[in-house]
Design brief:
elongated, 2 domains, Porin
Length: about 150
């Protein structure tokens, strides 16, 4: 291999490495993006059917998206029956939000866990300009719908 072809090989290798780094960096930047496009007040309905011996339930509560971050809350923080949803909403509207709460009625909890028992799970949601639809990722099948308030 002569000096010119060795230099070309090194240059190609460096360019390939640089390209990989740029792709990885842009993916990281994309994951951290937030959008103000969805900012505003939203009505939220979380519904879970009867499942594995637990009674179904449905809650309606307000959520707010501010500076691309969603927060919704039902009940009194830390008390039985409390629930909150939190997560960043990227520009494409596809979000992974986290539900955190405390069991309200043991009859509605899988395994009939006692009131006040803490729980948490992820919800995959896709927002449009006026609505959002999501589903619980772990555990019992639940849905979450969002409707933007005028």
């Amino acid at each position: 291999m002569n000096t010119t072809s060795a230099a070309r090989s090194v240059t190609r290798s460096l360019l390939g490495t640089l390209l990989c780094v740029l792709i990885a960096y842009s993916s990281e930047m994309r994951a951290g993006e937030k959008s103000k496009e969805f900012d505003g007040d939203w009505d939220t309905i979380l519904s879970c059917p009867n499942f594995d011996g637990a009674l179904g339930y449905s809650f309606e509560f307000p959520s707010l998206i501010k500076e691309g971050v969603l927060h919704g809350e039902k009940g009194v923080k830390g008390e039985p029956g409390w629930l909150q949803l939190d997560g960043a909403i990227p520009p494409d509207g596809r979000a992974n939000i986290y539900a955190n709460g405390r069991v309200g009625a043991s009859e509605a909890a899988v395994g009939h866990r006692p009131p006040g028992t803490q729980y948490g799970y992820h919800v995959e949601v896709e927002f449009t300009e006026t609505s959002g639809k999501g589903r619980r990722v772990e555990g019992r099948p639940c849905t979450v719908t969002f409707t933007r308030k005028p």
